[in-house]
Structure formats: C-alpha cells, structure tokens
Amino acid sequence: MNYLFNPENRFWSFMNKIADVFFLGILWFIFSIPVITMGAATTSLYQFTLKQTDDEEGYVWKSFVRAFLRNFRQATGLWLILLGAGIFLAADIWACVQIRIPGAVRIVCFGALLCLSLVYILTALYVFPILSRFDLNIKTILSHSFIMAMGNLYVSVTILVIYVIFGVLAYHISILFPIFMALAAFFSSYFFRHVFSRYWGEEDEEGSITERDD
C-alpha cells in the first residue's frame, strides 16, 4: 500500500510525465500560432519528450523556451523546406486528378505521387526529433531522416499510425488538438529513441553522429 502512494513509483512517475505533456501541448500550440515558428516549436516539444524517455526532463517552461530559441534558425529553415516540398507534392496530386490524361498514365502518375508522398511523410517525421537530439547541419538532417525512416520502415509506420490515431481523436475532439499532438510526440519518442540508439557514434561521410549536450 505504501508503494502505491509513493510519488517515486513507476505509475506516478508516468503520470507526472503525462501532466508535463499536457503543458507541453499548450506551449507547442501557442508557439506555433505564427505558423512559421512551428518547426522550432516542434523541435522544442521533441527535445523534452525525448528526454522524458531517458528520465532526464527538467522544468517544462524553461526547457521548452531554451530549446525554442536555440533551434529557431535551423528549425525554421527545415520547416520551410518541408512546407515547400509538401505544397509541391499536393499541387502535383491535384494536377494529376484534374488534368485530362489517359487513364493508364493517370493511374501510374497518381500511384507514383502517392508513394513519393508516403516517403515524404515518413522522412518528415524524423526531421525535428533528429534536430532536437543531434548536432547536424540541415543537409545531413534531411539525409539521415530519409535513411532512418526507410531503414527502420516498420518503426516509421508505427510512428505514423500513432499520429494518425491521435489525429483522428483531435479531429473529433478539436479543443484537445494540442494535447493529442503532444501525446503523439510523447509516445512516438520511445520509438525514435530506439532508432536513434542504433546510430549514436556512427561514422559516415559527414562525420560522427553524436548526441547534443543540452
């Protein structure tokens, strides 16, 4: 009985993490309102949730703001790249549907665009978690996002399913959208951590992949 009410047992530790995630969701939403800042806000969100998987989280507000300011420039650049690529793919799919082209060609083009879109989505899922965890330049972040997403496809699809589930919940209970997105980041962080652990200290053409020291 004493163990049940011990604030340091696993259950209460997990509940404390969830409470922090609720606050994180609100911060993420507020800092994302200008839209252009969404990349930095998402990076800050993941930096905290990834630390939660290691039981290294600190004060929510202080950690979030510090990460937001530190990563703003690089995260914004990555966000604009992803946004531009997403708009380009969406426009291509729209054109494929609207333009009158032979049926077989339309099917091939539409199928190819859907495959590219899936690769884009899976790659994009890794971008901000990688930025929050490693000291890498934009080009290397994008290349490693693709490599990790495709090289760990079953994990990537699992993460995508997590976001789809919480996205559906957010659609039906829109007032809790920020909370559901933060919960999706929290649960997916355990899968990202599993993937990242395979690459810590590896050498490649860009140099060593090392964790950030925050």
Account of the 3D structure:
The chain has 214 residues and is mainly α. It has one domain. It has seven helices and two strands. It has helices at residues 10-32, 38-53, 60-98, 103-133, 138-151, 153-172, 177-196; strands spanning 203-204, 207-208. The chain has a two-stranded antiparallel sheet. Strand 1 and strand 2 (207-208) form a beta hairpin. It is globular. Residues 203-207 have low confidence and may be disordered.
Strand content: under 5%
Rg measurement, Å = 19 Å
**Strand elements, count:** 2
Major sheet: order of its strands?
Answer: 1-2
Structural class by sheet pairing and helices: mainly alpha
| Overall pLDDT metric | 87
- Detail the poorly predicted runs: 203-207
Helix and strand pattern? HHHHHHHEE
Number of separate structural domains: 1
Report the major sheet. 2 strands, antiparallel
Give helix % range.
over 70%
- Categorize the overall geometry: globular
How many separate helices?
Answer: 7
What distance separates the N and C termini? 38 Å
